[in-house]
Amino acid sequence: MLTLYQFEISPFCDKIRRILNVKRVPYAIEEVPPTKTLSVVRKLNPAGKLPFLVADGAVVADSTDIAYWLEAHHPEPRLVPEDPRERGLCHVLEDWADESLYFYEMRLRFTLPNNARRFIPELVKYEGSLVRTIAPYAMPFVLKSQVSSQGVGKRPLDVVLRDVERHVDALAGILGDGAWLVGDRLTIADVSVFAQLFCIRASDEGGRIVAARPAVAAWMERVDRATAPGAAAAGAGSGMMQ
Ligand SMILES: N[C@@H](CCC(=O)N[C@@H](CS)C(=O)NCC(=O)O)C(=O)O
Known about the structure:
Elements (H helix, E strand, L loop, with lengths): L1 E5 L4 H13 L3 E5 L5 H8 L7 E4 L2 E4 L1 H11 L10 H28 L1 H11 L5 H22 L6 H19 L12 H15 L1 H8 L2 H14 L4 H4 L7
Parallel strand pairs: 1-2
Antiparallel strand pairs: 1-3, 3-4
The structure holds glutathione.
The site of glutathione has 12 residues, from helix 3.
């Protein structure tokens, strides 16, 4: 049995849960509250990040490495194309999602007060009462400094929102009339980009940006259905628009 160590509301953990759903791999969840990162996570994953997977005593860390490990150990349905060009495009889109879009979702969900009011309580809901009480005051500062060190946190909100519009327009352009981002079936690119955009869309501002682009909104519904628990067979491996 695989065990997924996760923060429930992390997009990287959502990405892995969805891949596990598509591949119909049974797994257990170990929820790690943010304040347990040092005591629990670093013992098993020195990078101190979630998600990681424990499989027969071995630790596989980083969502990309976990995704490729799952592809190797549970190949069907395939999420990483064999064709070198498609495989390369999947890699670039996954990396863009993980290393760029992630910081926009953090900036929108956790540093803007209108969204942070909803999402900080979600982030700390498995913590004790003291942490739950102070988190709404402390967490926006902690997270703002993480986002600032990458750069997105230093940009004014109007510039950040223009960037998000550009990113979502890029997705609309890549999709064109197609159902999926790469080739004619669900791939790791769809799952990775979806996981970050799902969080961006959950913010007030991101929700408006996605809603104004119907092709992207429809693609999100398609990926969501194809990667939900128990819904895997319908989307994965099928080139059909659902
Ligand atoms: N590149 C990593 C990023 C994972 C990541 O940043 N996880 C965040 C949660 S969304 C985390 O563990 N943060 C804890 C920390 O930085 O202390 C992946 O793809 O798994």
